[in-house]
């Protein structure tokens, strides 16, 4: 056990110290992986140390290296070494912060980590919540509480509102909560890709006049496409006027509140009824570290408490909270749940909050640098200004073509060409119906030189592109 464990730590350290070596993306076709992993069930055991080598050499590197300094795809994450050790320890101890009886120590760690997150985001002490797997489950958990509190058991005529720029997990949550697709009203955004309170007001007035039942609005702080921030304060005022629940999906962008630039966001976040926050994004945690926070934690308990859903109360009765303990399985959909909070707790204890604030500021600086380079480059065009470490741009065709289909094909060709170099990863998205290139610059290991390299690669790809593009 010690020999394999020491070897595993060596492999982890080697991985973390060589992140920038090699390409930011590697893939293999299913046919190539079949001989390696498509084996029959083994009846006899093998050498654990050798198996660790096989995984780290042949399997785990196949994918996006989200911590590579020139990986600008999706929303990169870096993880950190204390968080790796936190997962190791919590797994070894079979830590379950579900019922207090089952894991009082783990539950206390989660309570502390939640309090620290509230301090980082500027939320009042009375807010509460729990750690979940990520933004998708956080959105589902919050909207389930909103549905029950606002509608009871009657979904007739219910309407949930968001912008078309909201994350797909909002639509999936609506589906899982029993809402038909027509009951999710996705409004076109304003020119800055934000949910427009005026359009929302008009839609609410029309729906109320038609006898429908609006119950909640989802505002996004940091859309995945452009990093747009919906006007949370105005939306909160509108929701209060109509008695609606305001959920803020801040999976990426809520971390902006850590920075000096984002201090004003704290007040806006505090106006929500619930908030999604993903530490596995801009708080640099490994995946499976999401969080949902609500203004009134009792509303989570009203939806999820175990006693509400008991079929045979005898088995779980000994684990019920009786003396002020917190049972996290009363606050969300999971009963058996891992100690995700330990990653956050150990990271903050090891590095201190100031290190994370500096890292967020660094990501903002990088996106500003990228925008300045793009604006100064004759072959590049900024299509959305930097917002929360995200920006989009377009490459101009070498022949000067303005045909929309040609220009769109060029952006996809440039993305493919940059990826093929093995030096950077820049993918595309859609903005106002057009294909554009997108960069997310939040990796604290990324430098301005990495930004310059990626943009230079994009420009070279244009020069080498087929003129017919």
From TrEMBL:
Molecular functions per Gene Ontology: transaminase activity
Protein's name in the database: Aminotransferase class V-fold PLP-dependent enzyme
Source organism per UniProt: Streptomyces durbertensis
Cofactor or coenzyme needed: pyridoxal 5'-phosphate
Matching Gene3D superfamilies: Aspartate Aminotransferase, domain 1, dopa decarboxylase, N-terminal domain, Type I PLP-dependent aspartate aminotransferase-like (Major domain)
PANTHER family: GROUP II PYRIDOXAL-5-PHOSPHATE DECARBOXYLASE (PTHR11999), MIP05841P (PTHR11999:SF70)
Family: Belongs to the group II decarboxylase family.
Protein keywords: Aminotransferase, Decarboxylase, Lyase, Pyridoxal phosphate, Transferase
UniProt xrefs under Pfam families: Pyridoxal_deC (PF00282)
InterPro entries the UniProt entry points to: Aromatic_deC, PyrdxlP-dep_de-COase, PyrdxlP-dep_Trfase, PyrdxlP-dep_Trfase_major, PyrdxlP-dep_Trfase_small
